[in-house]
Specification:
The complex is a heterodimer of chains A (111) and B (113).
Chain A: E1 10-14, E2 19-24, E3 32-38, E4 45-51, E5 56-58, E6 62-67, E7 72-77, E8 86-93, E9 100-101, E10 105-110
Parallel strand pairs in A: 1-10
Antiparallel strand pairs in A: 2-7, 3-4, 3-8, 5-6, 6-7, 8-9, 8-10
Chain B: E1 5-7, E2 10-13, E3 19-24, E4 31-37, E5 43-50, E6 53-57, E7 64-68, E8 74-78, E9 87-94, E10 103-104, E11 108-112
The chains are: A mainly beta (111), B mainly beta (113).
Chain lengths: 111, 113
């Protein structure tokens, strides 16, 4: 597959463990945040989003936590599976502006 | 499958040349976004169109231009290509003009030699 980055932070976890991927965003006025997953050779895929008036949102096996005090976003993946191996991007939006993507974190799941 | 299609999948061309990348959004989506992703960069927003009109511009070079046609498909034109333009180019679409959930296409891999 195609590499999306040569110097990405990498998180390696054992299959079945929980994963936590962190993201520091840049604009304290950002009001909307999204996590995307990008598998090798594919386009980014929406995972979960959260608005700034919330601090936690849960999806299927995923939870996003937002800490506005320190401008920090995290994605928790429960019972990580080999199919979760991918690069994960956080993105932020301020008002009517466009999404600004972070550099990404590579998640590697060991069987 | 996101429903967004992009052609071609791969493109190899020489410096100084001009290429056109094509994107068809999901059925019903009015907004189209173009992104560039190079090996040492994350996703860089280039430009957005909404219902045929330019809505927002990001880090798009003057050598690059785009348009959205009445049938809502979009084209990204890259001219006077340089080696540094080699990258993955993604198109995304969304229903409205705000950048909520965007659906990404599979991308076009451009290699400039």
């Amino acid at each position: 597959g195609e590499s999306v980055g040569l110097h990405l932070p990498t998180l390696s976890v054992q299959e079945g463990d929980n994963s936590i991927i962190n993201c520091a965003y840049s604009n304290s006025a950002s009001d909307y945040f999204i996590w995307y997953k990008q598998e090798s050779g594919k386009g980014p895929q929406f995972i979960i989003d959260i608005r700034s008036n919330m601090d936690k949102r849960q999806g299927q096996r995923v939870t996003v936590l937002l800490n506005k005090t320190v401008k920090h976003l995290s994605l928790q993946i429960a019972a990580t599976q080999p199919g979760d191996s991918a690069v994960y991007f956080c993105a932020e939006r301020f008002g009517q502006g466009n999404l600004i993507f972070g550099k990404g974190t590579k998640l590697s799941v060991k069987p | 499958d996101s429903g967004v299609t992009q052609t071609p999948k791969h493109l190899i061309t020489a410096t100084g040349q001009r290429v056109t990348l094509r994107c068809s959004p999901r059925s019903g989506d009015l907004s189209v976004y173009w992104y560039q992703q190079s090996l040492d960069q994350g996703l860089q927003f280039l430009i957005q169109y909404y219902n045929g009109e330019e809505r927002a511009k990001g880090n798009i070079l003057e050598r690059f231009s785009a348009q959205q046609f009445p049938d809502l498909h979009s084209e990204l034109n890259l001219s006077s290509l340089e080696l540094g333009d080699s990258a993955l180019y993604f198109c995304a679409s969304s229903v409205g003009g705000l950048t909520g959930e965007q659906y990404f296409g599979p991308g076009t891999r451009l290699t400039v030699t």
